[in-house]
């Protein structure tokens, strides 16, 4: 299995998919992949055509072609025939609903377990988890279920942030994740800060990027993991 | 129908249920209510006993007794016999799951439509809406459905905030609500800032509190409504 699970597409003041560009290029090197099937269903206020064009403009720069599943008559067949898959960010609930409705949730799972490269950012990282339960997104639509692909046995919280907006009386991100682990003891949560990714390759899971990640599990003190670390313990269910 | 839908319990640096205390007192005045059934199910990292005690300490100060539904053998009967109901904040998904599981979602709806006073803050305001789709909370558990009581025909976004944490690449609150209205055209969303409430009484809906609220609807420019304004248009489906 070969995964690149990216916290976020864009850092403030930088280009779209700017910071992870080199990581994506490294990830795809020597795979023989030329064309990548793109899943745009997290997009809500952008058209799928525009979303596809935006992502393609980035991937073209290092020699890959993006083609979006929304053009396909038979989306499951498109998944079965794909050389690699990329799932873009946006609203996780919208993404999960459409992946379930079209049947590609299970189809992609099967292909990735069979070895084709999978990349996802933000919502696209959430759907690689057992469920969507650690998304930050608003539940704007109701999916059939919260179950996702379970390519990894732990939960990612993308865009993990330490800051709390001034004057805000709601929960901090850490408090939200503490609620999650209280309601779901036994499950690890990886708080992936902006400009960090988890890469799984050759049986190794590694944190890459610019910042440490924060690991939560019920009954333990949260701990920080430095970029470059192997974190295979997260893959042990 | 008599509703007090409060954005948030606590402003930074102020006491628990400090800012809305006078509004709660005004709301209950002349109702004849003495005892208020409390729904603590949004609490996840607090015990229901502790949550009850914390809320009771506030309500006692102006002469009301809080008793929590988690002590009741027959929760639906407790709802049927209640003089008034207060639903506390916390995690909306946990609250909705427990309200559905115990059957009190429908029971409370019936009692409130029959006229008993209903107060809710944060998650407790969300469940008065048609669905939970405009909560800010993490979906830490999966309810049977996103459907809520529909005491009002529009959606509240509690803790509405304009600020965006520094260095955060995720969506702003306004972007999240824009995604909601794109996916749910025709539904109004009321962005209730901290220290504001919506009060429905004698057939009138009014914004009370310290700040304007921001109203969203697909295809229109968001607009600001000043505290003290009647906003009956939101009740027209």
From TrEMBL, chains A, B:
GO molecular function: dipeptidase activity; serine-type peptidase activity
Source organism of this protein record: Lentimicrobium saccharophilum
Keywords assigned by UniProt, alphabetized: Cytoplasm, Dipeptidase, Hydrolase, Protease, Serine protease
Enzyme Commission code: 3.4.13.21
UniProt keyword Signal, yes or no: no
GO cellular component, one term: cytoplasm
InterPro entries noted in UniProt: Class_I_gatase-like, Peptidase_S51
Phylogenetic lineage: Bacteria, Pseudomonadati, Bacteroidota, Bacteroidia, Bacteroidales
GO annotation terms (biological process): proteolysis
Compartmental location: Cytoplasm
Protein name in the entry: dipeptidase E
